[in-house]
Amino acid sequence: MDKPLFTILISAPYMIPVLPRFRPLLEGLGLQLIVPDVHERLSEAELLRYAGQFDGTISGDDKYTSRVLEACAPRLKVISKWGTGIDSIDRHAADRLGIKVCNTPNAFTLPVADTVLGFMLTFSRHIPWMDRAIKTGQWEKIPSYSLSELTLGVVGVGRIGKAVIRRARAFGMHLLGNDISPIDPVFLSKNEVEMTSLPELLSRADFVSLNCDLNPTSYHLINSQTLAQVKPSAIFINTSRGPVIDEPALIEALQSGRLAGAALDVYEDEPLPRISPLTKMDNVLLAPHNANSSPKAWEKVHQNTINNLLDALGIPIPEEV
After folding, report:
1. Residues 6 or more apart from 101 whose CB is under 8 A from it?
2. Would you list the DSSP string of 99-161?
3. Is the peptide bond before 288 cis (omega within 30 degrees of 0)?
4. CB of 111 within 8 A of CB of 291?
5. What is the β-pairing status of strands 100-102 and 235-238?
6. Has 289 been annotated as catalytic?
7. Using CA atoms, how far apart are residues 244 and 211, in angstroms rounded to an integer?
8. Which secondary structure element, helix H or strand E, spans residue 80, and what is its range?
9. What is the per-residue pLDDT for 111?
């Protein structure tokens, strides 16, 4: 048997279950696969155990810190990230060490935007709470709202933020936006979006949807100071990245009544610890970082992630990928 050309660490949780489909192709191209046991992501310590053993990786949100990257170099040539977000990778260290970082931009725009809309409809119409009441023998007509009566504030008017806005506009919501970058005025005019400051958005919005990237300007963007600016009746929705919110500050705001509710798909620590107070709150909806769920989107990402890996390693991409 010929010696493998490259060794690849496959740690993306969404890729591992379907790996039997792709293994024959990858091994046929001369790739030897290392597939660790992954629960959500690999930590820095877990990655260090494999340092120097692989030339490329198909990764999830693994903690590729500068320490890990330095230990993996010079052998590591490419990190092919499954999905869009690459905030778990120290890009400066990767660039310095000549490690290529690839991802699939715009992969999950539609399912994530649908999730935001679903959370808003759930809260505005009180669907799970009425269901729960009836199943416990109560016949309680809980006052609800039409989305057309409410204001949505979107923090981060990028691809996903725009998709959220388009959906909300179809329901007749009043729309506020906030972003550190200029937004196309044609889009804003067409969708009747009022761009405003973060304090102004927080003080006026009934729903606040966080759709920004995680970077130094957005880390703990929502904290005790910004939460003090919100309407007490407001609902926060986070489908971006967990550390955009200072979680203890959010919990305190929910417990004190400073904030009416929250819908969270992402957390500072994932999986969300069972002891988190969030799991005991009736005014909080929780999901397991699953807003990207879409068979069509996942298939596109599977194929693009493999293509990115092969391209970076200089391996011709077969037609069947």
Report:
1. 78, 79, 81, 86, 89, 91, 94
2. -EEE--TTSSHHHHHHHHHHHHHHHHHTHHHHHHHHHTT---------GGGSEEEEE--SHHH
3. no
4. yes
5. unpaired
6. yes
7. 10
8. strand 78-81
9. 98
Q: Which of 131, 125, 56, 123 is nearest to 94 (CA)?
A: 56
Per-residue pLDDT, 1:
47
Q: Do the beta carbons of residue 303 and residue 25 sit within 8 Å?
A: no
Token pair, residue 55, equals 């030339």
**CA dist., res. 166 & res. 147, Å (int):** 13
Question: Which among 110, 98, 14 is positioned nearest to 59, based on CA atoms?
Answer: 14
For residues 93 and 217, what is the distance between their CA atoms, to the nearest angstrom? 19
pLDDT at 321: 65
Residue 208's φ and ψ, nearest 5 degrees, are -120, 115
Q: At 151, phi and psi to the nearest 5?
A: -110, 130
**Catalytic option among 204, 241, 247, 302:** 241
User: And the tokens for 200?
Assistant: 């102004």
| pLDDT tens readout for residues 4-31 | 799 999 999 999 999 999 999 999 999 9
CA angle 213, 218, 224 (to 5 degrees): 140
End-to-end CA distance of the chain: 24
Is 204 noted as a catalytic residue in this protein? no
Instruction: Determine the residue type at 137.
Output: G
Q: What is the pLDDT of residue 2?
A: 66
Structure-block tokens of residue 123: 């809260």
Indicate if 174 belongs to the active site. no
Taking each helix axis from N to C end, the angle separating 127-135 and 109-125, rounded to the nearest 10 degrees, works out to 50
Which residue in 270, 274, 299, 320 is the catalytic one?
270
Name which of 226, 219, 291, 285 is nearest 252 in CA terms: 226
Which of 159, 174, 289, 302 is labelled catalytic? 289
The pTM of the full predicted model, rounded to 2 decimals, is: 0.93
Query: The tokens 């939460």 sit on which residue?
Result: 227
List the chain residues with pLDDT less than 70: 1-2, 320-321
Give residue 4's pLDDT.
77
Report residue 317 as tokens.
Answer: 């991409």
